[in-house]
Amino acid sequence: MNKQIVNLIEERLEKGKREYNEQLDVHDGRDWTKESLEEALDLTIYLTAEILKRSTIEKTLKNTELPLYRYFGCARLEDQENGLVSLDSKYAMLWDDIQTEMAYKINVNAFGGAYHDWMPVYIDQVVGVSSKFNKIVKIFHDGFVDPEDIIPE
Questions:
Q1: What span, in angstroms and rounded, lies between the C-alpha atoms of 61 and 84?
Q2: Is 106 within 8 Å of 75 (Cβ atoms)?
Q3: I need a labelling partner for 72 at 20 to 30 A (CA). Which of 16, 19, 20, 58 fits?
Q4: How far apart (Å, rounded) are the C-alpha atoms in residues 124 and 145?
Q5: In whole angstroms, what is the distance from residue 105 CA to residue 124 CA?
């Protein structure tokens, strides 16, 4: 960690050297105490702005209902290439339900309500992520969904 701090300071000095075409001259007549205090005031303004920004974001998130689970899968219609599909859910889902929902979503996106055009869907490598715990909750493999199993009645 200390090395990273030193690296950041060195990067900052290099940036100053590039911008002003010279290294820092500690004997150039400037009032370093006054400049430091002015920089501290600027820092206070920047930190206050960041606090206000984060406060606004947190209020927005509290008023927004986020899904607890998000599932990402690689899937394709019978005669097409793989694509990414995702699902949001308030609850953990079983594999059969994930397959059905993903197949439904893919067919609706491809064909809309023209159920007679719907095609089988092949699903591979689904990953479930919990936003509540910010971690992968389940990995599923390989699935096939026939359109007859998902067409609404």
A1: 26
A2: yes
A3: 58
A4: 11
A5: 15
CB neighbours of residue 149 within 10 Å = 14
**In this structure, are residues 120 and 129 in contact, taking their beta carbons and an 8 Å threshold?**
no
What are the tokens at 7? 């690296």
Tens digits of pLDDT across the chain (153 residues): 788 888 888 888 888 888 888 888 889 899 999 988 998 888 888 888 888 887 776 676 566 665 578 888 888 887 777 778 888 887 778 888 888 888 888 888 888 877 788 888 888 778 777 766 555 655 666 665 666 665 665
Distance CA 126, CA 94 (A): 12
Q: How many beta carbons lie within 10 A of that of residue 44, not counting itself?
A: 10
Beta strands in 3-120 (DSSP E): 69-77, 83-89
Q: Which two tokens stand for residue 122?
A: 């092949």
